[in-house]
Amino acid sequence: MDPLSAATPYDAIQQVAKFLNCKPTSAKVARFLDEHDELRHLREQFVIPKVSQLPPSDLALVDGSEDCLYFVGNSLGLQPKLARKYLEEELDKWEQMGVHGHTVGSRPWAWAENNIEQLMANVVGAKREEVALMNGLTVNLHLLLLSFYKPTTERHRILLEDKAFPSDHYAVESQISLRGFDPEKSMLLMSPRKGEQTLRTKDILHTIEKEGDSIAVILFSGVQYYTGQFFDIAAITKAGQAKGCYVGFDCAHAAGNVDLRLHDWGVDFACWCSYKYVNSGAGGLAGAYIHEKHAHTIKPALTGWWGHNLKTRFQMDNKMDLLPGVGGFRLSNQPILLVCPLQASLEVFNMTSMKALRKKSLLLTGYLEYLIKHYYSKDETNPQKPYVDIITPSNLEERGCQLSLSFSVPIRAIFQEMEKRGVACDMREPNVLRIAPAPLYNSFSDVHRLINTIGASLQASNELQ
To answer: Where is the signal peptide (predicted)?
Structure first.
């Protein structure tokens, strides 16, 4: 029996329960799904913190020797086991041969990031020459906007979400001001309909059709950080380009999460961090993408030595031999100590495919959704009972790993009780928890344990009031 062959996650859960002759909510279902998970071995490639290692460990109410329930890969992914080994290799090389490390060994510092660009390109659905690993996300966004945002009096607006991640909002605001325009007039912000939490694709496309002649750049997130909504990148790109706009995406919450096809969808530019679902560590090396169609037409506004062709870079003649495409946007050499953990993680991704990870992710997140709705839906017969709404779209094609859970009661006390029980997740006051079951290392049994923990935490927090 293959649970992944079912039409929907709900079908899979029901079929497994029937096969096992148990309730769909039984832990037997989770164990069965784990036993039949062809990607379960990937969990072994990561270091999972123990409950006793997490704050507030002195208040822990469960066995401290157990693995914690880590559902916060949407903020910081777990450490790949090979990260320490690779870092120590480079520290040893630095200690033992100094400057010669730039050109010697399996990871020469002068071009170490070039060796893993193909692995990164595979994760985001791009060609190798369309991807560069450099800087941090917001730095890359600024570099890209400097070249793609060329406002005129007729076409000067940038379309983005009203609740875009602050970095994107600030970057757009400053880029507009830099060109002498007024952000109040040149930022076109889209909000969901009244009473709704997420944007409808048809509303986005309608805005592009209506306002497109005045829009220079469309900048959306691939997956919205708060709601977990996975935008229809292909449709937005097609609509924007049809109106003469450049279309770019901040894929911080999409890279390593959903099956991206940046090249095939014709996206003009994109950028992402690598420390969330790509597991490169806090402040890890970021990525940038420019479609090959712009390789010889879009030039960097700022240039540096690392944008110079490697074959002639060290001739030092101060005559720029600019790399085409995104490679020319490099400014300086990349920190080798950031390359190492990124390589360690990308090698784990290379053990499978984004298609396979996405397939598991849909079932894993669907299983979480099923249990949340079963135990914590609003009870009309008991209005005093706390309940949970899922603000992430129910349509599987409109979400990634993350479910954003909106509680009917304030969240802080519940969150604190969950921490005591070994759960690592993300709280957004006043009432939202972001839960992200990552298919690389989360299991179905993790999800089942989480559901029980939510119940115990709700009860404990209620008793404290």
So the answer is: none
Residue 220 φ/ψ, nearest 5 degrees: -120, 160
Is 253 flagged in the annotation as binding? yes
Q: What is the pTM of this model?
A: 0.96
21-49: per-residue pLDDT in tens? 999 999 999 999 999 999 999 999 999 99
Please compute Rg for the chain using Cα positions: 23
192 annotated to a ligand binding site: no
Judge whether 305 is annotated as a binding position.
Answer: yes
- The tokens for 347 are 């090698």
**CB burial class (10 A; 0-12, 13-18, 19+) of residue 301?**
middle
For residue 70, say whether it is annotated as part of any ligand binding site: no
Q: Which two tokens stand for residue 462?
A: 């209620």
Residues 6+ apart with CB under 8 A from 113: 132, 133, 134, 285, 334, 339
Chain centre to alpha carbon of residue 288? 14
Among 113, 107, 103, which residue's Cα sits nearest to residue 87? 107
Query: What is the DSSP code (8-state) at residue 409?
Result: S
250 is in an annotated binding site: yes
Distance CA 25, CA 433 (A): 22
